[in-house]
Design goal:
The structure holds 2 protein chains of 2 kinds. Chain A is mainly alpha-helical. Chain A has helices at residues 4-37, 43-55, 58-69, 76-83, 91-115, 119-127, 132-160, 164-170, 180-189, 194-225. Chain A has a single domain, classed as MetI-like (MetI-like fold, Orthogonal Bundle), CATH 1.10.3720.10. Chain A is globular. Chain B has a single domain (3-205), classed as P-loop containing nucleotide triphosphate hydrolases (Rossmann fold), CATH 3.40.50. Classes of the chains: A mainly alpha, B alpha/beta. The interface between A and B is medium-sized, with 20 and 28 residues.
Chain lengths: 234, 212
Amino acid sequence: MLTPDEWGIVWLSLQVSLVAIAGALPFAFGLAYLLARGQFPGKVVVDALIHLPLVLPPVVVGWILLIAFAPHGVLGAPLQRWLGVSLMFRWTGAALAAAIMALPLMVRSIRLSIEAVDPRLEAAARTLGAGRIDRFVTILLPLARPGVLAALVLGFARSLGEFGATITFVSNVPGQTATLPLAIYSALQVPGQDNAVWRLALISVVLSLGALIASEMLVRHGLSRDRDTGAHVL
Amino acid sequence: MSFDIALSLTRGRRRIETAFATGGGITALCGPSGAGKSSALAAIAGLLRPDDGHVAVAGAMLFDAASGIDLPPETRACGMVFQDLRLFPHLSVEANLRYGERRAPPVRRIVDFAETVRFLDIAALLGRRPGTLSGGEAQRVGIGRALLSGPRFLLLDEPLAALDVALREEIMTVIERIRDEFALPMILVSHSPDEVARLADHVVLMEPGSVG
């Protein structure tokens, strides 16, 4: 079936995508909560900024990351000086690019599910003695759970497919940043690699399809238990 | 005095005002719709902040605009039964009942779980989700949840409005037994003169406030 190199590509892709969504989740939830419940000036601008990666050419997102995280960039320089870390040409940089690209989809999904939670239930919990964090954990989080799960699966699928921002930001380094789409792109450049392209493409289809079906099943499961949270993907 | 309350609050462009001092037992809050009875109840529970006035229950000051006292709802120990019940849809009936019980300091508990379940005759419902309950069943679970939260007083927002005659009788009996067995002061919002005549020890009439 797959050669050891190809397995390496699959594992790298899974690693990059899982780290990307795990890192993005707290930010996605915080932003979704802010947009769903917060009232503040400039909300429209924040909303638009979060959605920017969805509509910008991915190359532009990659280029912005490149400028920011370059050794002398506004974020790259302090990161290098204080933590001794560089994201350039590293899988961590690929994960960051994937996280930024997945963020708008994750925020949307979580925001819908938070908006579907009736604040009157939280008011009832207050009269029963539940403080702020208690209400968050016992009322809001469980009721928003289907949307959070859908966000994770959707973000994962989006991360697996990330190409433009990644190749622009951290280039196409085998074993570090050459995830499935980048490896397929490389293979396409070399004559006689048709079989490798087929195998890698097939794996991409299987992983992405699996993620979408898992997401839909999670939402349905949540539905039968509770009520519609508006988190459908399919 | 069980209740010593003076409230003035604004909802949209509506002014809501009421003031009363009543003893133990059941105080019925009556008046036409739009008088702000539910808003007054929410303010007593601490869910709405009055512009002015005070809320004292059984000698404890819960809100006082003059001295800046404003206890949050979670420490007011008020057992609130909402008109729309607000049972938690993701929890079983048992978990709904235990929600307030688990959070109440032991000294405040007035009744234990088994006794509540027997008293309200809801043993058969414990494993079910609130979405599958009938109106009368859900009403009893809502009352049970409030009773188990270790309340010092109960606020009942039209607990009989959505029920048919037979169920209404049943819930009225429950309310009378709570009054007699637990000696809890209660405020009951009601539209119905029959209910008020039968249940109320004190009657407070609320008039629609000025619009300005």
